[in-house]
Amino acid sequence: MKRKQESLKAAVLISGTGSNLKALINAITSGTLDLDIVQVVSNRAEAPGIQHATTAAIPVSVISHADFPDRQAHDAAVAEILKRSRAELIILAGYMRILGEAFTGQYSGRMINLHPSLLPLYKGLDTYDRVLASGDSETGASIHFVTAGLDSGPVISQVRMPVLPGDDATALKTRLGPLEHQLLTSTVQLFCQHELAYRQGEVLFRGEVIRQPLQLKPDGNFH
Ligand code: GRF
Fold first, then answer.
1. Going by DSSP bridges, is the β-strand pair 155-162/196-199 parallel, antiparallel, or unpaired?
2. CATH 3.40.50.170-classified regions of the chain
3. Mind giving me the DSSP string for 176-214?
4. DSSP designation for 148
5. Which has more pLDDT, 7 or 5?
6. Largest alpha-carbon pair distance within the chain?
7. Phi-psi group of 205: left, alpha or beta (phi > 0 → left; psi -120 to 50 → alpha; rest → beta)
8. 116-142+152-223 placed in CATH 3.40.50.170
9. How would residue 6 be classed by pLDDT, with cut points 50, 70 and 90?
10. Using CA atoms, how far apart are residues 97 and 66, in angstroms rounded to an integer?
11. Beta-sheet strands, E only, within 8-76
């Protein structure tokens, strides 16, 4: 992949399919995202997403939690790789491992997570089932700054979609996937343009505190 000296350097952490990693790579390749992915980390050796990184010649480290005595030791190994990579932004894209407070504290304002719900609704797992069980008429995805609490950091951006009659969890996941890809690439591009920042638990967009998450519209812009 073409590397530009001045591009923002990012590390992407994955655990599974890696379709969001692939979306970032595609956006870089097509010239719509000015990012340099310097490192991919997976906590699972068998994560299919690793292949996307390998194909794009991005360094991959597999740091399996099973190889460490506790969370702290695993987190420390991940932190060491991230430090060496010189990544400026850490992107959790389907990373299914809870990170300890010592770790998240090191990356305050520099680590973001993609979550498949309209946060603060449905933190944690099984979001689609919980949306359906609640009878919600819409759902979506959110990107937030990572803080110590699970899926609890300030929300930067969201994309919304309707829940349709007859939807099951698979249908929701299938329809949300492409929207998540767009949300992630568009939000990361705002970081690349230095338009997003974190200050004392709040999100700054173009220097102003936002009271509501930025909303991604079908035209690809935020409103
Ligand atoms: C996405 O749905 C994301 O919201 C969640 O994990 C999934 C990752 O998908 N955190 P993929 O591995 O990028 O395909």
1. unpaired
2. 1-107, 116-142+152-223
3. HHHHHHHHHHHHHHHHHTT-EEEETTEEEETTEE-SS-E
4. S
5. 7
6. 49
7. beta
8. yes
9. confident
10. 12
11. 8-14, 35-42, 60-62
Provide the 8-state DSSP code for 98.
P
74: pLDDT strictly greater than 80: yes
Cβ neighbours of residue 84 closer than 8 Å, sequence gap 6 or more: none
Which is nearest to 70 in space by CA: 48, 102, 95, 106? 102
Share of the chain above pLDDT 90, in %: 94
In this structure, which residue's CA is closest to atom 6 in ligand 1?
94
Q: Which residues pair with 148 in a beta bridge?
A: none
Q: What are the helix and strand counts (H, E) for the chain?
A: 6, 11
1-107 — its CATH code? 3.40.50.170
pTM over 0.70: yes
Nearest Cα to Cα of residue 47 among 2, 84, 17: 17
Distance from residue 39's CA to the centre of ligand 1 (Å): 18
**Inter-CA distances, 144 with 20, 30, 40, 56, 61, Å:** 15, 25, 20, 26, 24
Residue 158 CA to ligand 1 centre (angstroms) = 14
Preceding peptide of 178 cis, ω within 30°? no
> Annotated catalytic sites, by residue?
115
Structure tokens that stand for 123 in this block: 């933190």
Q: What is the dihedral of CA 184, 185, 189, 191, to 10 degrees?
A: 20
Atom number, ligand 1, closest to the C-alpha of residue 116: 4
Identify the residues whose C-beta falls under 6 Å from ligand 1. 14, 16-20, 49, 93-94, 114-116, 141, 180
